[in-house]
Amino acid sequence: MNREFSLRNLELSDLDFLESIENDSSLWKYSNTIKPFSIIELKDFISNCNQELDVAGQKRFLLEDKDSNKLGFFDLFDYDKKNARAAVGLVISKEYRGRGFSKIGLQLLENIALKDYCLHQLYAGVGTENIKSRNLFISLGFIETGVKKDWNYYDNKFHDEIIFQKILDV
Questions:
Q1: How many CB atoms lie within 10 A of CB 21?
Q2: Are 115 and 82 in contact (CB under 8 A)?
Q3: Which backbone phi and psi does 130 adopt, to 5 degrees?
Q4: Are strands 5-9 and 121-127 parallel, antiparallel or unpaired?
Q5: Which residues have a Cβ under 8 Å from the Cβ of 144 and sit 6 or more positions away?
Q6: Where are the beta strands (DSSP E) in 10-156?
Q7: Cα distance between residue 100 and residue 69, in whole Å
Q8: Stated pTM of the model
Q9: Per-residue pLDDT reduced to its tens digit, 67-101
């Protein structure tokens, strides 16, 4: 376990950081966001996001380092209790990209998924042109299992999405 970094629940003190990430329109194509979130919406989200995964069907964590620098967000969503699986989403703040924090956070998230939620598998959808994310998932043992053709529309055209899966309890 990496003691230099941790994933923690969101707090109201994270509001400005959450707003800067969620309202960065350059990231909307990855989350299918179509309009900015208001401060009230984001406050409500933080107030309600610390419910357990089996209650809310999703769980968001903030990745921070030992100096309490806020590096990014890691999500479990589309939780399926019966089949013990959840989707994974992540974003690292612009100033911290390219330093390996995505890999660290995803490893921490895998540990939480297995130990705290007894998940059997994680999966992610990644745009075919998002080479860095594709390489990240491959480097952590996720396997490309399929392609959704013309799945997401952005930049004035349709894009394919690759599905990655990882079995956790082997």
A1: 19
A2: no
A3: -90, 75
A4: unpaired
A5: 134, 138, 162, 163, 164
A6: 59-65, 70-80, 85-92, 121-127, 143-154
A7: 15
A8: 0.90
A9: 999 999 999 999 999 999 999 999 999 999 999 99
